[in-house]
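FORM 7B: Structural annotation worksheet

SECTION A. Query
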Amino acid sequence: MSAIEDMDLPTQLRRLGLGPCEAEVYITLLAAGSLTVAALDGRLGRGAGEAARATRRLLRLGLVAHLDSAGDAVSPVEPTIALDQLAHARAAEVQSAHVAALNAFRDFRRSVHSQPTEDLLEVVSGPQVAERIWQVEGAAESEVLRFDSPPYHTAGGPNPIEVRNLERGVAYRVVYSASAVRSTSYYAGNIQPCIAAGERARVLPTVPVKLTVFDRRLAIVSMSSVEAESNDSLLLVRPSSLLSALSGLFETAWRSAYPMHLSGQVPRALRPVQRRILELLGTGVSDETIAELLGVSRRTLSRNLEQLHQLAGSTSRFQLAVHAARSGWI
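SECTION B. Predicted structure
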């Protein structure tokens, strides 16, 4: 192996800023001593004119020189000065790249951490609120997370967009407040149809905020009952630490909420009304409200509750709930 090959000279020359063809021409001249451009073309086997272009740059850099006034042949010259110039040029390029990278990172920091508030938050109010809610929900692609409680910008009626989204594979997880479940019309027109369509629903006595998160990339925060009386508006939150915090808040509440739908392990002997009773027992609503939600009399509710107690071997709503949980009914 020659000294030139041992030093991997082509790689070193390219690091200094020579192109592949220029490095090859220079190494060929070091081995041959001197050659005409035509001879270089023949030895390199590259495209016509490539050796000539490489030679012209080597001449400008001072790495080769003409042997005579005719300029037909060139030979390498002592490279100290030329290589020093190349090294300084590369150092200047590296420093320029260093400065450009730092400036780019500073711009990134400003865009992420000092991004104008209007790029992260948007306030929507008045008649545009309901339209914006339907628009955003209709564009959901994979997952919707929701804290559901009154009042409702969409009049608290059915939600056909959610049903269509569920049919096309969008996953919904909803934590309802007890006040939402207690509304007979809302329970019958919105909650039950959505659960039947595949929504995973849970309930808490209250939810910390009115919130819907779409695909983890946009959240809608609405006013509470008290706030809505004086300010009928909502807040759109785009990707930010605030959006991450809201998503985390939902997950924490979801883990502590009580399921509103039954599993596949519920005894087949249970009638549909008894299944609905079990779903509502954990919501914290009264027997009177359950009867109203189901559209049955208190006497019918009592009779079905008694049959559920007999099946579970329980004597109270608490024991019935414990049995349902242990048996995997919910």
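SECTION C. Observations
The two ends are 77 Å apart (CA to CA). The chain has three domains: 3-83, 122-259, 272-326.

SECTION D. Sign-off
Analyst initials: ____
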